Amino acid sequence: MTDARKDIHDPEIEGFFHCYTRCVRRAYLCGVDSYTGKSFEHRKHWIRSRLAELIQIFAIECLSYATMDNHLHSLLHTLPKISFAWPDSEVARRWRSLFPYRRRPDGSPEDPNAAEIAEITSHPELLRKYRLRLSDISWFNRCLNENIACRANAEDECTGRFWEGRFKSQRLETEAAVVSCAVYIDLNRIRAGCAPTPEASEFTSIQDRIRAALANHRPEAPQLATFQEALGPTAISVEEYIKLVDESARMLKDDKHSMDPTLAPIFERLGIRTEAWPKSIREHRGLFRRVVAPLTRLRSYAAERGKAWFQGAKAAKFLFA
After folding, report:
1. What CATH number does residue 37 fall under?
2. Any long-range contacts for 93-96 (C-beta under 8 Å, 24+ apart)?
3. Within a domain: 19
4. What Cα–Cα distance (Å) separates residue 238 from each residue in 177, 207, 226?
5. Backbone φ and ψ of 109, nearest 5°
6. What is the tally of structural domains in the chain?
7. Could you report the per-residue pLDDT of 258-298, keeping only the tens digit for each?
């Protein structure tokens, strides 16, 4: 039975979410078709560019992403306080940039005129609805996935679904949950055997972070939030995070089950058991279902929502100190 998204996501409350979407029939609709040999790699550029556009419009940050041949991962941070602080005209402008009445010859949205802005700002209930939607992961993913599906169907001269049903999501309740999930996402291409190292992992946030650290940022890449900006000044730094991903990638490639001891202070600060890390970077998404959190928080979160439990108790006890 599918869980209601409202059990883990309230667009009025700030939160971190691991979102996951797969192509229909698990087909390689963003990779190379092994049957025909036709390449659809250019669609990964579409996804990355659209992701970058939406981050500039929504009150949502992106901390991590990975675009694969047949699925997409993202780690999103919702910021409803920002959307509710925008002037009314700014809310209307952003909404009309997503759903414009008019478009330029190249298909890009025309800037809304005064009448189009007033149409929204003169209705308080409509304004509140749009403020909520602009900090809602469901609307963010809708605007991402529908755009890519329409472009792909037009290219293929066909109709029908490009993505499977709705996207899946997990709520990440602590710094440890956010960082461990981000590393899991950034290691996707290495885990799948598509890249040898983090710096060679195309269409991932870890490659973007490494390039930015080398002052070689690609202009079309999404503007990624740092963990210290999103989680607070005591969280992991960019340099520490890159080192953590690099060492974790070496563990995957060499099939090691022990961590570099120099990383121990990071795990201690975040409250992650070092002995659990190898399993986390290999199986993180499957260890939990709706919520990723330490055991006590997992139980209280379930109780707050009238649930007896949320799946992941065993993993929570194993992973989080």
Report:
1. 3.30.70.1290
2. 93/117, 94/57, 94/58, 94/134, 95/120, 95/130, 95/133, 95/134, 96/120
3. yes
4. 17, 12, 7
5. -70, 140
6. 1
7. 778 888 999 999 999 999 999 999 998 888 888 899 998 88
